[in-house]
Amino acid sequence: MSISAQNPDISGERQSGQDVRTQNVMACQAVSNIVKTSLGPVGLDKMLVDDIGDVTITNDGATILRMLEVEHPAAKVLVELAELQDREVGDGTTSVVIVAAELLKRANDLVRNKIHPTSIISGYRLAMREACKYIEEKLVTKVEKLGKAPLINCAKTSMSSKLISGDSDFFANLVVDAVLSVKMTNQRGEIKYPIKGINILKAHGQSAKDSYLLNGYALNTGRAAQGMPLRVSPAKIACLDFNLQKTKMQLGVQVVVNDPRELEKIRQREADMTKERIEKLLKAGANVILTTKGIDDMALKYFVEAGAIAVRRVRKEDMRHVAKATGATLVTTFADMEGEETFDPAHLGTAEEVVEERIADDDVVLIKGTKTSSAVSLILRGANDYMLDEMERALHDSLCIVKRTLESNTVVAGGGAVESALSVYLEHLATTLGSREQLAIAEFADALLIIPKVLAVNAAKDATELVAKLRAYHHTAQTKADKKHYSSMGLDLVNGTIRNNLEAGVIEPAMSKVKIIQFATEAAITILRIDDMIKLVKEDGQGDE
Q1: Catalytic residue among 45, 60, 318, 389
Q2: How far apart are alpha carbons 518 and 254 in whole angstroms?
Q3: Which of 406, 411, 417 is nearest to 478 (CA)?
Q4: Which pLDDT belongs to residue 447?
């Protein structure tokens, strides 16, 4: 038996062991270094120019990473991690990536010191469980019957790192009002805040301070014709998903005509079909017709005569929200089981009034007083597109955070308080274990300190000194019973001191912190598990066959 049989020939390059780990860790460090400087209330923004020259200026970790088009497979895990955090919590995307990369770096050092990855992984898992337990038992503050103040503080904390931090008082109120006004109770009796029902419209001009909250769902299109009324009340809304144009024959249908007079009849019938459809709509009592497709001039004429508002080319997404808010059904075709065309009045949605207003230079159709959930729109004003886009991202983050706070009812102090407390606690925990995991947990505890460190560095403060002070406070809080209140000590990045962040109003929902730790650990473990990488070479000659 020859030796070559044991090493099968792989058409590609294979790297294994330490090389792969080091490479993966380097890639993840590179990704995390990109977003590192954008963390915290004094974080800086990134300017991204894509391949066609569009500029995005943003501070949102998920957005930055999404636009980077990362090639490296391990770094891709971090990008997906940020997107997951964005979906699940909505904020904290930057922190997740930084923590994950730091955990990896620490783990790599341990592996170099001859500690097996499996021990590290089990240590990390244990540390993660303990950390989440500790947050939920010791660090959270219940916000019973949430007044508005904690909510506004959460929103402000979430906005502090974004472009609008200067006007955070103003925007925090807007956000909290918006979330509170979409409150609804589902079938199971749970109270939910569907923030999808908050429509964000961006309009140029005026300053950011002129943004406001509109009660009603705003559609970013005008009426289809000028002859239509400006307002209809009470409104019966039909949501359609097909063309209201002169019906043409389907492609491939040929009609052979012997008598030229028949042609005229066919044309007439084609025109009448649309007319009949519209009459069915109006007969059912509809006075507002929204459609995702077009309506041609002939059809508009009937609507104008009936005094109804018709809006064409509405975005599918808007359509769904309107249908949900008004209790309408999206109708894709008039055909019923018998092959006849009917329109059931039950498909209509109701609203108190539908008006067209001018906002900036655009005509906007507002649907007010909807039947089921109250829909609201945030109208953002701002100087230019970049600013408006960034404002929208910032508001999306704070909307999510307020929603999470309301649904989970628990908050923790921000500004590195939780991370320092966990670090002190886990370090103490590590010394009580006699197994291999001890080292992994100690490294996990150290890795969490990256958040306060980066916060301090971004604020141009002395990180080493501040973090040392912070840990001293938390150590006191955990050892002396009468100093429990020190557990919410965090960084004050404006003055470069330590303060009680719960009292200063720098708070975040506890769920956000727990998720950050869970997701970051999971991602780090995923990448740590890899010890072999085989890159296959594309074979030539496949394309010819």
Answers
A1: 60
A2: 63
A3: 417
A4: 92
Catalytic hit among 93, 221, 292, 410:
93
Task: Establish whether 405 is a catalytic residue.
Answer: no
Cα–Cα distances in angstroms (integers) from residue 356 to residues 223, 299, 427, 453, in the given order? 7, 20, 62, 52
The string of pLDDT tens digits covering residues 464-482 is 999 999 999 999 988 888 8
Indicate which residue of 86, 318, 389, 397 is catalytic: 397
> Is 60 among the catalytic positions?
yes
Q: For 12-142+412-536, give the CATH class.
A: mainly alpha
Buried b / exposed e over 123-135, threshold 16 CB at 10 Å, is bbbbbbebbbebb
Q: Which residues of 187-226 are buried (b: 16+ CB within 10 A; e: fewer)?
A: eeeeeebbbebbbbbbbeeeebeebeebebbbbbbbbbbe
Residue 541 is predicted with a pLDDT of 59
Average pLDDT over residues 125-146: 86
Q: Are 406 and 179 in contact (CB under 8 A)?
A: yes
pLDDT digits (tens, 9 = 90+) for 34-82: 899 888 888 888 899 988 888 888 888 888 888 888 888 888 888 888 8
Residue type, 432: T
Location of structure tokens 């002190």? 424
Contact of 378 with 215, CB cutoff 8 Å: no
pLDDT attached to residue 249: 67
What mean pLDDT, rounded, does the chain reach? 84
Architecture of domain 216-372: 3-Layer(bba) Sandwich (3.50)
Tally of CB atoms within 10 A around 319 = 19
92: tokens are: 């904290």
| CB of 437 closer than 8 Å to CB of 122 | yes
The Cα–Cα gap between 289 and 277 comes to: 12
The structure tokens 């499996």 sit at 118
Angle between helices 93-112 and 510-528 (to 10 degrees): 40
Write down the residue that tokens 């979430």 correspond to. 158
Question: Average pLDDT in the 7-21 region?
Answer: 77
Task: Give the start-to-end residue ranges of the domains of the chain.
Answer: 12-142+412-536, 216-372
Tell me whether residue 336 is one of the annotated catalytic residues.
Answer: no
The whole-model pTM stands at: 0.82
What CA–CA distance (Å, rounded) separates 5 from 51? 47
pLDDT in tens, 296-353: 887 788 888 888 888 888 888 888 888 887 888 888 877 777 777 777 888 888 888 8
Identify the active-site residue in 63, 94, 326, 405.
94
Count CA atoms within 13 Å of residue 277 on its CB side. 24
C-alpha span between 275 and 363 (Å, rounded): 27
Catalytic residue status for 169: no
> Does residue 392 sit in helix, strand or coil?
helix
Least confident of 11-20, 250-259, 384-393: 250-259
